[in-house]
């Protein structure tokens, strides 16, 4: 069994009308095969060789119009290949170019096995290959089958590409839907925060107004006692005064703290740690009773401390109060 090849010329571009031209295939041993380009595709059957010379010649004048020389291993598998055609004698390539422009030729390579040796002789420009005529029908059938298989591959690839595009489209739609939901949730949260801050500001202003009214009434009743500036700390006060105030951390302090929180509608906001220490969220504050009023250790009232330093904790507390996961107001540690 001998190994041979079938080289099929499928299409030629960039040379205009080639119906009046011939295609000449010359092997490395100078053996030639020639066929008219009046109808395509045309096929050449030959035995194994290392190098090929493919020429497009004018049928009348036998002038070479374009040519190409290349090794057979440039097209190693049975497939279709676009190859360049050269208008000059510098026509040899040993690598497939990345970009192939006109003029160019589309050829198909196909392996052929035969039990009989191929007997072919060199051809001149006025003769044709007997082997080619004997097998022209079978070669045309093989070329047609190869073209059909190539078209099936293209259809299969197009279907796969269509499926991939549909999958990508569905994923993009899902992502866009999620992004829209995230944006809507963000806008709702933003509006909620703005409304909450406005409510807190209104509450704070109401407490300031009430506090001023209470101070005015105390002054009118002669019960007003001046409180030291806010920057005065325990360290600046006399030892006897500190002892008197710290001795009052008992049930009365807890009751007054609860009264203040109930009046502010913040029941459950604070949690007692130990003695006179209370927690608001993650913050710890030390409270005491001064003239019957719940104050911080620096003299600041509990209401002013909460609205001045615990706005974030109050916001989280109000948000958590809407979802009844746990009722902290019933816990004896919460106020």
Task: Report on the architecture of this protein.
There is one protein chain. It is built from 6 helices and 12 strands. It is of the alpha+beta class and 335 residues long. The strands form 3 sheets. A 4-stranded antiparallel beta sheet has the order 4-1-8-7, with helices on one face. Strands 3-2-5-6 form a 4-stranded antiparallel beta sheet, with no helix packed on it. The longest helix has 86 residues, at 136-221. The chain is rod-shaped and about 130 Å long.
Topology:
Blueprint: E1 2-13, E2 21-27, E3 32-36, E4 42-47, E5 51-58, E6 64-71, E7 80-84, E8 104-114, H1 130-134, H2 136-221, H3 239-246, H4 251-264, E9 270-274, E10 277-280, E11 283-290, E12 293-296, H5 302-309, H6 311-322
What is the name of the CATH architecture of the largest domain? Sandwich
Q: Indicate the CATH topology of the largest domain.
A: Immunoglobulin-like
**Widest beta sheet: strand line-up:** 4-1-8-7
Give the mean pLDDT: 77
Largest sheet: 4 strands, antiparallel
Q: How many helices does DSSP assign?
A: 6
Report the top-level CATH class of the largest domain.
Mainly Beta
The low-pLDDT segments are 117-135, 223-236, 245-249
Percent strand: 15-25%
What does this entry show, briefly?
By secondary structure, this protein is an alpha+beta fold.
Task: Please name the defining characteristics of this protein.
alpha+beta; 25% strand; 2 domains; 4-stranded antiparallel β-sheet; Immunoglobulin-like; 335 residues
């Amino acid at each position: 069994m001998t190994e041979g090849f079938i080289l099929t010329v499928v299409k030629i571009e960039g040379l205009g009308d080639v119906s009046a031209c011939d295609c000449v295939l010359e092997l490395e041993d100078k053996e030639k095969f020639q066929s008219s380009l009046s109808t395509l595709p045309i096929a050449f059957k030959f035995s194994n060789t290392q190098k090929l010379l493919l020429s497009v010649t004018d049928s009348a004048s036998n002038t070479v119009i374009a040519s190409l020389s290349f090794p057979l291993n440039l097209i190693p598998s049975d497939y279709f290949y676009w190859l360049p055609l050269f208008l000059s004698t510098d026509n040899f390539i040993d690598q497939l170019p990345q970009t192939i422009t006109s003029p160019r030729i589309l050829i198909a390579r196909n392996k052929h096995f035969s039990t009989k040796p191929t007997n072919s002789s060199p051809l001149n420009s006025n003769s044709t290959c007997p082997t080619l005529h004997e097998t022209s029908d079978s070669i045309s059938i093989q070329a047609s089958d190869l073209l059909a298989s190539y078209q099936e591959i293209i259809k299969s690839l197009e279907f796969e590409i269509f499926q991939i595009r549909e999958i990508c489209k569905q994923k993009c739609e899902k992502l866009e839907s999620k992004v829209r939901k995230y944006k809507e949730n963000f806008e709702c949260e933003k509006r909620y925060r703005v409304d909450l801050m406005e409510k807190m500001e209104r509450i704070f202003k109401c407490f300031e107004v009430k506090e001023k009214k209470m101070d005015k009434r105390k002054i009118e009743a002669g019960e007003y006692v001046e409180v030291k500036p806010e920057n005065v700390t325990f360290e600046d006060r006399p030892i006897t005064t500190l002892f008197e105030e710290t001795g009052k951390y008992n049930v009365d302090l807890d009751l007054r703290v609860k009264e203040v929180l109930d009046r502010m509608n913040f029941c459950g906001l604070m949690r007692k740690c130990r003695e006179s220490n209370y927690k608001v969220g993650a913050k710890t504050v030390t409270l005491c009773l001064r003239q019957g009023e719940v104050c911080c250790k620096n003299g600041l009232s509990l209401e002013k401390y909460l609205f001045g330093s615990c706005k974030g904790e109050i916001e989280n507390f109000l948000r958590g109060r809407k979802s009844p996961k746990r009722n902290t107001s019933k816990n004896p540690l919460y106020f």
